[in-house]
Structures are given as structure tokens and as C-alpha cells.
Amino acid sequence: MTQSQNSELPLIDMRSDTVTRPTPAMRRAMFEAEVGDDVFGEDPTVTTLEETAAERTGKEAALFVSSGTMANLVSLLSQTRSGDELLVGDRAHIVRSEAGGVSRLGGVLATTLPNQPDGGFDPELIPGAVRPDDMHQPRTTLLALENTHNFCGGSVVSLERTEEIAGVAREHGLRVHLDGARIFNAAVASGRSVAELAGPADSVTFCLSKGLGAPVGSLICGDESFIREARRTRKLVGGGMRQAGILAAAGLVALEEMVDRLADDHANARQLARGLAELGFGINPEDVQTNIVIVQLDTSQDSAPSPKLQAALKALGILVTTPDRTKIRLVTHADLSSEDCAEALRRMAEAEIGPDS
Ligand code: TLP
To answer: 31-58 in b/e burial notation, b at 16+ Cβ within 10 A?
Structure first.
């Protein structure tokens, strides 16, 4: 294991579930993968992965891409024209962490609706946000949801809420995209299938390289004609890959072997939240639904406390991220055990880390 600055302390990396290393079974599958040129549609392992993804999400077809960012970008560009408008939550990964790609590369105006704590937004805001047919205005054509919702603390957007929001969007002629980077976490936490949660969406993406532990890759799923268009858009942005079966092979192992264990990550995140609450941080462990813990720090003494706390934790060999200058984020994953979480809490208690440190 990598060592922290203090050589006594093994690193506990809670920056993201993206830090997981491929499992031995994934490495074996990658070594043995049958491959071909996927731009010619000749990679059997990619084809199997795409068919499996379509089946899991209950859609007609799927497309393998390199990342969650590319999956969202290709999905959004394939369902809009330059000058269209996208409605999206103000804390969505699409607007916060994807370099503004939909606007820069798609010429699409992204208008935000305030996210509510569950990661959804008020469906009553949608009718007022959809523009009338007026030559002065952009055309509102697409709405995007996210499940689980990363910057809302890994919250699960329930099926009922997804249906409600998507239903209103559809009544107003909008298509619906679902950023399901962590939709398998949402399914495990809610007891709904991925296909049920993705049902109300025209397009859904998910990542293999987060909680599912694969080294690279995401899937876009939807109906045949959308996926045909997405294949063209993927080429446009340089995302056509050749012997990509090497990567898809790990993805197939991820879907076979890594889904059920997400429940352990969720339990570990709860355990962390309980420990943080005991240390005096203002967090309700009941709010933690999946593998992401976001702690809102006290700003009464310091208006930007998170970089300092992040540095103090790093000195203890605990790596976290700061979604903004008032919050820290801890993420559990396959390479972190319940003992690792207990050890992190023990180090914090010993160093008297708390809301005032
Ligand atoms: N999220 C990353 C960072 O970018 C914040 C993380 O560590 O959580 N949608 C959602 C909801 C995501 O959380 C992410 C990655 C993506 C899309 C993009 O995926 P990648 O990193 O594969 O491009």
C-alpha cells in the first residue's frame, strides 16, 4: 500500500471511488480478451458489454465510451442542436465538473434549476422554465437528471420523483437524460432495478470506473436510433476506440462481480458519518444513503475552512476532496474496508480533529 507523508501511516484514500485498482479477475479478463477493431464494429468483447449494458438498463442499445464526462457530452450533443437549451440542476456534475462541454462543444445553453437535497428539483419549476416558441429565444429541448446525485451527497433520486420530473418534462416536449454515473449505487440502496430507475429517461449513462472498480469506461444507453446518432457523435469528439475489448473485458467483470458489494461501501459510509458526528461534525448519518459523505463545515470562525481541514487530514494519511471551500467529501469504495474507515476515525480522534480544528 502507498505510504503517506508520515511513513508510519498507510494512506487511506477517500478522494473518490475512481481511485480503485482493477481486481485480479479484471486483469485476467483483460489479458485474455478477444478483440477486434471496434470502429468497424468488430470487437466481440465491446459488443457483449454493450448488449449487457442495454439489458441492465432496460434500453434497446448501448455504446461504450471512455469516461462519464464523454458519456454525458455525447448523450447531450446527440439530442440537441446548437442554440438549444438544456434544463439541469444547479449542483449537477454536468454543469459543475465537465468543463462546460455541452455549451462549448454543443452550443447549448444550460439553464439551472435549484437542486433539492435529494438531488431532484421541483417539477413545478419546469413549465415556467420551458421557453415559448418564439424566434428570439432558444429552444428548450432537453432536461438532465443525476442519480445518485454526487454533490447532493450521493443521494438517491427515488423512482417516483424521477417519474414525476420526467413526466412534466415530457408533457412539455422535452427529452430526458439521466447521468447515472452511480446508478448501480442508487439501485442497490433503493432496492429498485437499474432498469426501473432508468425507465423514465430517453438516455442514461453509467460508469464502470467508479464503485464498480473497472479501470476505464462508461456506457450510454437508449433506443436504437439515439445510439446510432451517439455513435456518430462519439466519432466526432474523437472517442472511437479500436481494440477496446481490452477495456470492455474489465467492464464485464465489473457488472458480474462488483454490483452487490456496493452495499458494503454504503455501510462503510454510514459508519464514517456516525464517527464524524461523534467527533462533533454537523452531519446526520441518516442522510448518508450511498457511498458519498459530504460534511458541511462550520463557517462562523473561518469562511473557507475546507482547504485547512483537507491539509490536516492529509498529514494524517487521510485523503479527501473539497467540493467547495466550506465542505469536505469522503467516498468509500472497493479498496477501503470497514477497518480502514475505523482507522481513519481513530487517527482523527487521536489528533483531536473536529469542527474547530
Ligand atoms: N465525478 C468525479 C469528479 O469529477 C468529481 C468524482 O470523483 O466523483 N457524472 C457524475 C455524477 C460524476 O460524479 C462524474 C465523476 C462524472 C459524471 C464524470 O465521470 P468521469 O470522471 O469518468 O469523466
So the answer is: eebebbebeeeebebbbbbbebbbebbe
Distance between Cα 152 and ligand 1 center (Å): 13
pTM comes to 0.97
State which CATH number among 3.90.1150.10, 1.10.730.10, 3.30.1360.120, 3.40.50.1820 fits the domain covering 2-21+261-350. 3.90.1150.10
Q: Decide whether any atom of ligand 1 lies within 6 Å of the 146 Cβ.
A: yes
9 pLDDT band, cuts 50/70/90, is confident
Q: Are 251 and 46 in contact (CB under 8 A)?
A: no
The percentage of residues in the chain with a pLDDT greater than 70, rounded to a whole number, is 98
Domain 24-257 architecture: 3-Layer(aba) Sandwich (3.40)
- Residue 97 CB less than 6 A away from ligand 1: yes
What would the pLDDT profile of 310-348 be if each residue is shown by its tens digit? 999 999 999 999 999 999 999 999 999 999 999 999 999
Q: Where in the chain are all domains bearing CATH 3.90.1150.10? A: 2-21+261-350
How confident is the model over 133-156, as pLDDT tens digits? Answer: 999 999 999 999 999 999 999 999
Q: Is 185 in the pocket of ligand 1 (CB under 6 A)?
A: no
Pocket test for ligand 1, best of 95, 203, 207 (most atoms within 8 A of CB): 207
Establish whether residue 212 lines the binding site of ligand 1, counting it when its CB lies within 6 angstroms of any ligand atom: no
Cell numbers for 266, please give them.
Answer: 454504503
CA–CA distance, 236 with 130 (Å, rounded to integer): 29
Closest CA to 306 of 292, 291, 293, 296: 296
